[in-house]
Design a protein that fits this description.
Layout: E1 19-26, E2 29-36, E3 50-57, E4 59-64, E5 67-72, E6 76-79, E7 85-89, E8 95-102
């Protein structure tokens, strides 16, 4: 059994400048923990694979394509490959989310 503690996982540099940690990285799936401080946001970007976001805590605007919606804890958002998306922390606390890529980006 392998157990990964988020607090112990290594940070990695990313183009968005947010806290990011890889929690799971196998051939068919990659899972990343992101933590955005208030007013931090991901840049609008696309992924070459399907992605979903599972909201762990906080409040955020999520944009997928031309749709924008506020999301909170225990919501899951799908973002199909090739469709621009972004997350922006609109709350006063941290916004923590799991990002799952299926299959993972090569």
């Amino acid at each position: 059994m392998k157990i990964v503690k988020v607090n112990s996982a290594a940070l990695f540099d990313n183009p968005h400048g947010v806290e990011a940690k890889i929690l799971y990285d196998k051939e068919d799936c990659k899972t990343v923990f992101l933590s955005l401080k208030p007013e931090q946001a991901l840049k609008l970007h696309t992924a070459p694979v399907d992605v979903f976001f599972y909201i762990l805590e906080g409040r955020s605007n999520v944009v997928v394509g031309d749709e924008k919606q506020e999301v909170t804890k225990d919501m899951l958002v799908e973002s199909p490959k090739g469709i621009p998306h972004l997350l922006e922390n609109t709350g006063v606390d941290l916004f923590n989310v799991l990002v799952v890529q299926l299959p993972k980006t090569k």
